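Posting for a labmate who doesn't have an account.
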Amino acid sequence: MIIKEYEFLQCKDAQKPHYITPHNFEAIEKFVLENEPTAEYLKLTTKKGFGKVLQAQNFVGVIQTKDGTTIEILPKIFQNDDPKQAKEILFKMLRTLKNSPFRSFNSAHLQSAKMPLFEIFITMFLDELAKLIQRGIKSDYIGREENLPFLKGKLKMGEHVKQNFIHKERFFVEYEEFSSDRVENRLIKTTLQYLYKRSSSNRNQQRIREFLFVFDAITPSVDFKTDFSKIKPNRQMRDYEQVLIWCRTFLDNNSFSPYRGNDLSFALLFDMNLLFESYVAAYLRRQFDRITTQDKTHHLAYENGSGKFRLKPDIVIHHQDQMIIADTKWKILDEEKTNNGVNQSDMYQLYAYGTKYEQCKDMYLIYPKSNEMQGNHFHYFKESTCESNQGLNLKVVFFDLLNDKVCDDSLCRQ
């Protein structure tokens, strides 16, 4: 099932769109309520004719219930209602996320956009794993302790006496064995077993079976959280980096939007505000040589020389002798609303940035392009300097996700 931001799930009428069973509705409702203090993944509300519903908010991604029902939540791309195009744009945005496995997304995956999101994620993981297997999985000297019928390595006298008082023919020993049964490979095997139970794609299931054959001699991880903590990144294991990020994504499925609860089988959700910020920052990196994101240089106030109320603009651009500040907001502006829907708090926030970053004269508040506000923008000046056209200049502009550009050339001509 596919829904978009602000559409809702209902369990009242099976003949109407976005129906899920009462049992699944209850499971998702518990998930929402348990995580409500930290994030509003869906909003519990009511709709006429449906009663209680779960309305998608600014989080997109995939939710899978324990009976296998998969719900995809896609971004609302305002100029277009095509789910395929929304999914393609979502993947373009995911590629820009730092420390994520989505950077390997390519045109072949784009052709698979008709597949469910969850299956595309599995395909991307399997593609990375195929590259790793082609290069060869790593082995290491693994320490073992066993009660063997022959002497090998070092005899552990205490355990030997304790366990072999009757069995004189055995030896309790510790030894090292060069083996591929290392923690990284165990996590990969556990991920393959996990995905085999949840994938509904014949193609993906076939590939998982083939890869499980490669990992046949490796024992599964029995405590993947502890095993993840044992991984020590180094140059020799660089080939494993992307695959292990995927393993953590599937097994520990809270890498991007932390959540609690065991009411669902799987959930991978992304905050559209963070995705939009990441995507716009990636675009601006192609326009300017030097930009920083989430800059933490200044505080709003100081107490006894210590900074209080840290300021954190989304994007700071250094270009020649100019500084430009840009903040992104994933929100639909509307001409019918006061100030077109621009929040007063956002204006105060930008003003604070402009006064603390003394070199900054130009600031931008960037929203996704919407049908309602095509081509409009606004200028704000400090009142005392309006006549001289000096001081802070704040423009509200729009980013066209379909054509991948800011709908205002001034940001690119600075």
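Reply:
Got it, the structure tokens are right above this. The mean pLDDT is 84.
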